[in-house]
Amino acid sequence: METTSHSEKGVDLPFVPSVPSKSSYFNPISPFTDAFDRFNQWRTDLGLPHPGTVENLQKEVKATHLTNYIFDGARADLTKSFSGNPLFQVTHSFALGSQTLPSSYNFGAIFANQQIFLQGGVDHEGNVNARFNQGWSEKNITKAQMQFSKQASQNMIQLEHDYHGQDFSVNAKAINPWPTDMTGIFVGSYLQSVTKNIALGFESLFQRPSPDMSELTTSYLAKYTSNDKNWIATAQIQPAGALQATYWQKLSEKVEVAADLQLVATPSRRDALATLGAKYDLRLATFRAQVDSTGKVSALLEQRFTPAFAFLVSGEIDHFKNAAKVGVGVMIESNALTPEEMGMPPQP
Fold this sequence. Notes:
By secondary structure, the protein is mainly beta. It has 4 helices and 19 strands. The N and C termini lie far apart (79 Å).
């Protein structure tokens, strides 16, 4: 059957008013959105680099100094890798004979892929610690840390979130938060690149141990990075009277040096501590040395005889207290991976 339209019959269609589009609804605020877009475009044209995070502000200095590596007594770390992608490994750690810490055993496990990082451990006394990182995207990362002990005062839960912009980073952190009365410790930080070499920021700490007691402190941060990224200087100052300044330089592909200065000047306390350290990377070894203004001289040698076996020797002499510490350790790694999984060519 042949059909005929209304227009062909000469019948006029009723007038239907046009419905305003969604974009016209936002016309009243379009000047603000346009200004915001122009501002973002201006920031993009500047080409400012990402400044890093406040947490890693002194990362290079900490990697050069011995603070996170020195130990005394005897230590052994036995690691077994079960897979490479995703990463899954377990570690047995033994420590004994230390002058400052009791003998201990710790069992740990790590699982990681492109988005998730899980790490957990338990010691011989039943203390449990865990870390969890979830990368939602390249810009958003959520982190959680937990520690549970037989002593209630040592239990801890920490929640935080990182946001990485093109030329800035933001971090929000909550330690032992209690939503009912809003008690806990809350930390917020912001770091912004203002030029290709200089980054400025701040970190605020809000403590509320009880509903009727609270305290807010803010520290201000500055970071200068050279054009070739071979040296970095940082400063962190608190209005209460504390200053920390660091300097790190890469002298060559194998040698790095770092200096750290901490000053405290308050009505009740005046103190200063200066630390100078160096790291030298050999082909199969790493040597670190450090000296500070309290008279301590420290050194650590990590010698790797094979990719699966390393031997460590550390020592510290306190000239003012006439005391010394010595530590020895081994790190043994074993894996069930095939040469192809480890990225090695198969053996003929």
